[in-house]
Amino acid sequence: MHDLLSLMIWLPIAAGVVVLLLGDGGIVAGRWIALVATLVTLLLAVPLLSGFDTSTAAMQFPEKLAWIPRFRAYYALGVDGISVPLIVLTAFMTVPVVIAGWSVIESRPAQYYAAFLIMEGLMIGVFAATDALLFYFFWEAMLIPMFLIIGIWGGPRRVYATIKFFLYTFLGSVFMLAALIYMYVKAGDYSIASLQALPLTLTEQRWIFLAFMLAFAVKVPMFPVHTWLPDAHVEAPTGGSVILAAIMLKMGGYGFLRFSLPVTPDASRELDLLVITLSLIAVIYIGFVALVQADMKKLIAYSSIAHMGFVTLGAFVLYEIVRSTGSITGAGMGLDGAMVQMVSHGLISGALFLCVGVLYDRVHSRQIADYGGVVNTMPVFAAFMVLFALANTGLPGTSGFVGEFLVIIASFRASFWYAALAAVTLILGAAYTLWMVKRVVFGPVTSPRVAALEDLNPREFIVLGALALAVLIVGVWPAPLLRIMQPTIHHLVSQAVATKL
Amino acid sequence: MPHLPAAVLSSTSLLPAMPEIWLVCAICAILLVGVFAGERRGGLTATLTLLALAVDAALTIGYGHVPQRTLLLHGMYVADDLAVVLKLAALLVVALGLLYSRAYVETRHILRGEYYVLSLTALLGILVLASAASLLTVYLGVELLALSVYAMVAFDRDSGIAAESAMKYFVLGAIASGALLYGMSLIYGLTGSLDLTAIAAKLRDPVHPGVILGLTFIVVAVAFKLGAVPFHMWLPDVYEGAPTSVTLFIGTAPKIGYFALALRLLAQGLAGTAAEWTQMLAALAVLTLVVGNVVALRQTNLKRMLAYSTIANVGFIVLGFVAGTPDGYAAALYYTLVYVLVALGSFGVILLSSRAGFEADKLDDYKGLHQRDPLLAATMLVLMFSTAGVPPFVGFWAKLRIFQVLWESGHLWLVVIAAAMSVVGAFYYLRVIKLMYFDAPAGDLPPSAPLAGARFALGCNAAAVLLLGVLPGPLLDLCARLIQ
Fold first, then answer.
1. Residue in chain A lying closest to B410 (CA)
2. Rounded distance, CA A290 to CA A392, Å?
3. Which of B267, B349, B422, B472 could cysteine-pair with B397, CB 3.0–4.6 Å?
C-alpha cells in the first residue's frame, strides 16, 4: 500500500466533512460514520506497523507529489521510527474520544465529531510530513478545530482559555515559520532532509534554534510558556483534553527531535543547558504546583507539564552525556526514554482525563472536594482510576515506568545531579497523584451525589479497558516499541552530535 | 518607438482598448435606461450592469489579451497580460459585489440608475489605471475612480454620517490628488516626458534632488489612496459611514486599481529611484502594520474593525513593494488579489446579515450568528481565519510570500515586526469567530436575507478561499509570471 499515509490522513478528514454535511439531524448516522472512520484509521495502523522495516532509519512509505512548484514544495510524506509510534498513538487515541462523546455531547454533535475527525487527519499529517512547508500547513491548520472544540464545548471560562491557547501557539508558530522561510531561501526547497543537511553558521543556528524552541516549547509546554495548558485543559470538553494531552503536546517533543536536534546541532549543543534547566524546573516546580490543585483536571494538566519535562530532558541530555563520558554510547538512551515517555504519557494522561470525564458526566464537578469514597459506589471505575494513577507515578509494569526510568538512567550518565533532581518527580508524582486518588476514590462516601453514582457503563468500560491494556503492554513489554525506534534514534544521535560548522 | 502605429486612430490599433470603450458605451446606455425606466424598475439596470460586465470580461479576454506588450495611443495606454488579469479580477469583484449588495440597495431606497452607473465609472477608472502607461493616464484613472466613489459614499442622501464621510473623503482625497499632480508635474518638468517608459529610461543615477521631491509627493498620494498610515485617517470613517454596499465596493475593486497605480508609477516609471522609495515605504509599512492591528483591537463596529484590518493588510502589500524586486511586486500582487477576495466575502456577510432597518454593522450583532445562520457564520469563519493567516486558507500563503520576499531582500526586522503584528491581528479576527460561534444569540435579531443567488455566490467565495489555500500553486505562478 504505497498511499497508506495519505489514506490515514484524508480518510478521517473526508469522514469529518461528511459528518459535518449530514448535520445534527443525521447525527445517528454521523456517529457511526465517525466511529467507523476512526476504527478504519486504526486498522490502517496495522499494515503501517507490519510493513515497517525496523532495520533502517530511512523514511518509509514515501509519497511525493508536486504541490507548489514555485517553492519546490512537495506533498511529501514518509515515516521513520519516531513518527510511527506517534501516528499509531494518534489513531489509537481518537477512537476513545469518539466513543466517550457518544451520548454525552448534546449540543451541535455533528460539528463535534467533524472537528475531531478533521483534527485526527491533520495530526497524522504533522507526523507524516517530510516537507517542512507541508508540516507547517498541518501544524497550523490543527489549531482551528482545537480552537473551536474548546470554545464551543468547553467550560465557563472557555473563551479566555481558547483564545489564550490559540494566540500562544500562533505566536510560537509564526517565528518558526520565519525560521523555515529563512532556511528555504538558503536551501532552495522545503524538504526536511535538505534543511537537515543545510550548512549554517553558529549565529544562524542560534536564532533558528530559538525560533524553533519558541514554537515547540509552547506546544510541549515548557516552563515558563506553559500557562495556557491548565486553562485550556480545565475548560476543554473531555475529548478535547484527551487529544490535547495525548497528541498535541507530543508535537512539541516531536518538533525538537525532527527539527531542533538535526537542523541546528551546534546551537543545540551550545544551548542544551537552557532546555535542561527549563525541563528540570518543569519537573520539580510544576510538580509542587500540581500538589496544591483542587481541580482534578488542573492537577492532571500540571502533571502533564511535569511529565513532558522528562521528554525535553531526555532529548537534550545527550550532549551532557557526550561531554561527561566522551562517547556517544548510551547517548541514545535519553532519546529512547523521551519517545517512550511521549507514547506512555499520551496513553496515561488521556486515560486520566477520560476518568475525570466519567466522573464529571455524573456529578458535573471536577473539584476534588466534591468527591470521596467513589470506590464504594463505582468499584470497577475505581480499579481503573487507581491503575492509571499508579501508571502516572511511574509504577514498574506500567508504561509510565519505562520512559522515566530510561531518562533518569541517561541523566545519571550525564550528571548525578540531573538524575537526582529528575528523580524527585517520582516522589512528587506519587504525592500529588496518589493524594488525589485517596481523596477522590477512597474513604467513606462523603456526599449524596457520590452515593448515587452508578458504575461504568459498557461503553466506558471498553474505552478504559483498552487504554489499561495498552498501558500494561507497553509497560511490560516495551521491546517492540524500542525496536521500531532503534535505527532512527541511532541516526538522530549521529546527526545531533555532528557539527555543521 | 517602432511599435507605435503610424495612424494613431486606426480601428485595429484600438482593439486592445475595447474593454474601456465598451464600458463607456455601456455606461451611457445604462444611464439612459435608468432615466427612462425610473426607480420602479431598478432591477433592470442591475441586470444590464451585470450583463455589461460579462461582455466586458469577454472583450478583455478576446481583445485585451495581446501576444506581447503593446503600447497604444502614443504610448498612453499599455496592453499586457498584467493589465488583462487586473481587469478581469476587477470585473469579477465588481460583479460579485453588485450581486451581494443588490437586495441591500433595493431595500434602502438608494437604488437609482446612477448607483450602478457610478459603480461602472469607478470601474472604468480601475481599468484605465490597469493599462496606464503615462502620467496623464494614471491621473485620469485615479480621478475617474475617486470622483465616482466620493459620490457613491454620499448616495444615502438622508444619512448625516454618510454625508460627513463623503465630505471627509472628498477633501482629503482632493489633497492627495493635488499631491499626486504636483509630484507628477515635478517629474515631468525634470524629465520632459509623461511617458512612464521614457521617464524610467531618463531617471538614472545620480538622481536630481527635484526628482526626490516629486517622488515624495507621489509616494504620499499612493499611500493615501492605499490607506497607509499616517495617511489613513479617511479610511475608517468612510468605511463606517458609507452604506455597506458602498463600503464593499471601496474595500475591494479599487485596491486592484491602486495596486496598479503603485506598480506602474513606482515600480515601472520611477524604478530608477527605487532605493529612495523603498525606504519611504518601509517606514510607512511598519507604521501601517502597527497602527492598523493595534487600533483594530479596540473597535466595536465590524465595518470599522474591517477598515483597520484593511489598513493592516495594506501594510503587508506595501511590504511587498519594500522588497523592491520583481518577486516582491509579484508577492504584493498576490496579496492584493487574495485580500480583495477575502474582503469581498467579509462585506458580503455583513450585507446578507442586514435587513431593512437593521444594519448588522456592530460586532454584537454577530453574537450567535452560527445558530441563526450557519452558512453565513461558516463563511465568515473561513474568511476570518484566512485574513489571520492560518492555513489551510489562502491568506496564509499571501503572508508567507511576503515573508519570503522580505527574507530574500534581507529585511530581517521587517520580518520580525510583520510576524509579531500578525499575531496581534489574529486576536480581533478570533473575536469575530468567538462572537459567532461561542456566544449565545442576543435577543431578537432579524434572520438574515434568504437570497439564494447571493448566498450561493458567497459560499463559492469561501470555497475559493479554501481551495486556493490547499492548492496555491497556480495563482502564485500566475502572479509571478505577470510581473516578469
1. A182
2. 13
3. B472
